[in-house]
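Dear V.,

Thank you for sending over the compound details. I've combined the ligand you provided, flavin-adenine dinucleotide, with the protein sequence from our construct and run the structure prediction for the complex. I'm sharing the raw inputs here so there's no ambiguity about protonation or stereochemistry in the SMILES, which I know was a concern on your side last time.
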Amino acid sequence: MSDFSVATSDVLVIGGGLIGLSIAWHLADYGIHATVLERGSIGSGASGAATGLLAPVTASGRFGHMVDFGLESLRYYSDFLSILREETQLQIALQTEGLLRVAIDKGAESMLSKFDTWPHAKALEMVRLTASEALSIAPYLSPEVRGAVISPLERQINPRTLLACLQKSCLMRGITILENTKVLSIGVSRGSDSKRATTVHTENGNYSVGALVIATGAWSADLGKSLGYPLPISPNKGQVLTALPATTPHNVRFTVYANHSYIIPGEDNALILGSASANCGFDARPTLKGITDIVASTAQMMPGILDAELQHTWCGLRPATPDYFPILGRLQMCQNVFVATGHYKNGILLTPITGKVIASEIISGDVSPLITNYRPDRFSTSN
Ligand SMILES: Cc1cc2nc3c(=O)[nH]c(=O)nc-3n(C[C@H](O)[C@H](O)[C@H](O)COP(=O)(O)OP(=O)(O)OC[C@H]3O[C@@H](n4cnc5c(N)ncnc54)[C@H](O)[C@@H]3O)c2cc1C
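Below is the predicted structure of the protein with flavin-adenine dinucleotide bound, written out as structure tokens.
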């Protein structure tokens, strides 16, 4: 058990993105009705800007523990959504056609040739396709494509629909959500060998703290400073655009992915194209460079995209850490403070599992084996 008592209303979650909401939502399973403090509106950070690939192998670009963590979240997604649907009566679906990873250059082709050694290929029922097999199921691909892997279990979700569902369900579960409530600083008291957060100071008044969760995405470093604790999070700008293809309805069935670029069949006949990535501080303006990069890389996979009509473009700030792994769990020097941030390009994928394991750690004190590589103290010099 935790060495502090968690009363039903004294857990504060700072940050109303998908990660903060998911933690508050899972805490309600233990009878805890948390309060979420959000400086703008729900989903105004990266969560509202994301494209929603749930692709632990294809999009994460890494193998190992991060893929295991992502796979666990992907497996849990259907149960999580069933409960949300049942509680809210809202429609929310996973895009089910799967993902087609194509090789458009020699490097990618040689990566695909090692497909048999990919450790998670079997678990995800991935199948290697020749170029002509890929073109036969996706004739919209470039004839230059050198081969592909079809990954039928990797999926996509609309993050804005997920936000709406989760927000409604949180309210139905008795969670208080306070928007336009920016946390300015955190007050701490010092014991003999550790600190304890006592008060959260916001623009709209102060709140006393039983337990505190910092889930403030790309903006987490400032609250770390307020606690005297390093949270080395920096913003990574992601830009996406939507385009309306010349033919209606379009025939794009699969999400197509190559070299960190992708084309997702979206709603209302739109295609979602992403995503440019840049480290330029908190500047979240869409740029022409972002658009041209996305268009150039996606046109290599699907040349027909050049005839599509540009519809919208937008940006969001992904929370990045120095090792690109998230920061998850209790702070050793401040026993009633928990952190859940740094999800970088995988926060939508990791929303359900993060909520589940952090809520469980707050209540029981037990650390899930899934997150032992992501402890906050790996960046602490006093460690
Ligand atoms: C363009 C783009 C595409 C992406 N595509 C994918 C994808 O396909 N798949 C995937 O898994 N992930 C994707 N991501 C990443 C994903 O969006 C993030 O990892 C995830 O949304 C992080 O969620 P979060 O709740 O931690 O952060 P956020 O959603 O940024 O939420 C943090 C919240 O904290 C609030 N806040 C900050 N400071 C304070 C304060 N002092 N007081 C009160 N509130 C505060 C902010 O206003 C914000 O609402 C993408 C991101 C971008 C930008």
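A first observation: Residues 326 and 343 are 5 Å apart (CA to CA).

Warm regards,
I. M.
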